[in-house]
Amino acid sequence: MITRREFLQWTATVGGAGVVVPGCHAIPDPSIAPVTPSGDGASSGQLVNDIHSQLNATRVRVIHRPESLDALRSTIRTAGYHGRAVSIAGGRHAMGGQQFAEGADMVDMNGMTRVLEFDRQKGEIEVEAGIQWPELYEYLQRSQAADAHPWTFVQKQTGADRLSIGGALSANAHGRGLTLAPFVGDIAAFTLVDYRGMARRCSRMENAELFRAAVGGYGLFGAVASVRLRLTPRHAVQRIVEVIDVDDLPSLLERRIAAGFQYGDFQFATDLDSDALLRKGVFSCYGPTQLAPSPSDQRKQLSMENWKELLYLAHVDRAKAFQMYSSYYLTTSGQIYWSDEHQMSTYVDDYHAALGSRLGAYEHGGEMITEIYVPRDALVRFLGDVRSDFRQHRAELIYGTVRLIERDTETLLAWARQPYACVIFNLHVTPGAVGIEKSRQDFRRLIDRGLAYGGSYYLTYHRWAERRQVLAAYPQFPEFLREKRRFDPEERFQSDWYRHMKGVLAG
């Protein structure tokens, strides 16, 4: 823990003892030292939750919302002086509890959203870590409106847009690229505030070990203040859509990749009582074209009401949902998009509440995602196993997708340890002990089925994996915990997910 003397010396360098750093609003706290660069004025004991599953209600001590690097450093330094744990949150879509910690000071990064530098020569952009994908997308369009050869981002998570760039780094996320590694491949460098409140520049050459640990480190090695992204030329792509059988998917993926297609996925049918379950799907790929995109208002696209209806049907009439979704997507085959535009998504906030009593028994509860990785040559067999499992155990499958990922050789806690097929399952979780226990068992069986083929799973969508499953999928996890203590010996940065995992590994 830092001493009071160190704390006062540091505050003097950023504005003088007793002076709050500009850009971070102060909250008086008579129970602590008189010098308190602090948060956003929120009262103590704030209840927070994730947006998607809403299964992570957590009471944090206070929420800070810094608006500059100095304010972020001040917040971390103050927490260190008082011996408080800190958690880092951005878009709050993460479902495993990695952005919240009970009783901790939560740092809300949504106050840090500026573009710091745009290097048009190198094709790189430095942004504050709280900026979300729509803001970056709009900035790149606006600032290059007159440019003949504009830049854009390589990949982003799909399914939702209001996710932060710092969160994408901390999760080492991925999109639907057919030949891309996870997000680490798009990161040139970043600035991280460590447990002492010191800003450290991290890249493959500078603080390389911290770079390797913090990317995919789930916010446990420090607060990411800014990220420097490698960009790619913006270009037109053409969507090609087919409804296919999963048996044909591996060969079709190979053909699409050989033909220069860059993005794609397979959205599979989810009706437990249909022969199409996990077999038939909508195969959409985006490939090269010399044509220019037409204005978006001239293309076929689903309205918000269409999406709400699809979400409703995905719960109560999955056969009809697949018929509606596949019919619509087939009508869009041949449409031209920009390479960044097609990656943007429509997300219906709190759709269970929005759909209300129409959902019947599904009105309460939420959806939880898991992502299982299997060697590509095992994909069809794996889905066959899951088909039998879901029917036997009546898993509440709402939607799912198959994507590809290339191997990640750069991060400590790499989840893409070989070229995998990524299979995303979104299951409905009924509230209450019985519903939670059923979902826990459903997800554990999914992990085991992936492991049986030499696969893995994504660590932080939930906290239901057993110790043996964690170590089978992530044999490097003990090393990750050792590196966590090396770079953060005071365990300043915590989360409920981290606390849980320490207990799992200790057991």
Summarize the structure.
With 507 residues, this protein is α+β, with helices and mostly antiparallel strands. It contains 14 helices and 20 strands.
Describe the protein in words.
- The protein has 507 residues and is of the alpha+beta class.
- 30% of the residues lie in helices and 22% in strands.
- The chain contains 14 helices and 20 strands.
- It has helices at 4-13, 69-81, 133-143, 165-171, 208-214, 249-258, 304-316, 318-331, 351-355, 379-393, 433-451, 467-473, 477-487, 496-506; strands at residues 46-48, 58-60, 62-64, 86-89, 105-108, 115-119, 124-128, 151-152, 187-193, 199-203, 223-230, 232-233, 236-245, 263-268, 280-288, 336-338, 366-375, 397-405, 420-429, 456-457.
- Strands 16-13-15-14-18-19-17-20 form an eight-stranded antiparallel beta sheet, with helices on both faces.
- It is globular.
